[in-house]
Design goal:
Serine Threonine Protein Phosphatase 5, Tetratricopeptide repeat; about 75% helix; about 0% strand; mainly alpha
């Protein structure tokens, strides 16, 4: 697994794209692919149309981009996803989980965001936050959180749960739309309507 992580250094932008789902990493990876394609085409396909000096210049630029991107990635390589929480993050997660199960949405969100400030790649916390945002009717925020998690290596353990959550967001339910404002203002009252209409994919795992 460690070897596979470092193999991402072979392509500029790939470490951040593959390991963290970064859009900046995607942009850099696509830009390098474009530069490399131009270099290949100018050398072996349009060799009669492109002067040798220009072709060498393109290859030099390609090599320079690769070298700079690789050195930059080495200096700020995404650290491995922590396999366990420390005491502070574990306490925050337990508080968030208990608040979530009690339908205290505000407390749950506050604790989850505090946890993610300390451990941004905590996949379980990211998934719970995405589910919570959906329950509050904040569908765009929920989708963004879940899609970001699905693109990162921390989302691998939660793939089926992420897919279920995204399926809920594909066609928003009328019951969710009707109770979302109430849930934000009074989560205890709104939970009566939500309890029947919604099913939290992560709830069974959290209650264990």
């Amino acid at each position: 697994m460690v070897t596979a992580r470092y193999l991402t250094l072979l392509w500029p932008g790939l470490p951040w794209l593959w390991l963290r789902g970064s859009l900046a990493g995607l942009t850099l990876a696509l830009a390098f692919a474009l530069v490399l394609d131009v270099a290949v085409i100018s050398t072996w396909i349009w060799s009669d149309l492109v002067d040798l000096e220009i072709s060498l210049g393109i290859w030099t630029a390609t090599a320079a981009v690769w070298l700079v991107a690789t050195l930059s990635a080495l200096s700020a390589f995404p650290p491995p996803i922590p396999v366990a929480r420390d005491q502070a993050t574990d306490t925050l997660f337990l508080k968030a989980r208990d608040a979530y199960l009690a339908r205290d949405w505000l407390t749950a969100e506050m604790n989850l965001r505090a946890l993610l400030q300390l451990s941004a790649m905590d996949g379980e916390a990211q998934l719970l936050l995405g589910t919570l945002l959906r329950r509050l009717g904040r569908w765009q925020e929920s989708r963004q959180a879940l899609e970001k998690l699905s693109r990162s290596d921390s989302g691998g353990h939660w793939r089926s749960a992420i897919d279920r959550e995204l399926a809920y967001l594909t066609v928003p339910r009328p019951a969710e739309s009707a109770v979302a404002p109430a849930a934000a203002a009074d989560p205890v009252t709104a939970s009566v309507s939500l309890n029947t209409a919604l099913t939290a994919p992560v709830e069974d795992g959290l209650a264990a």
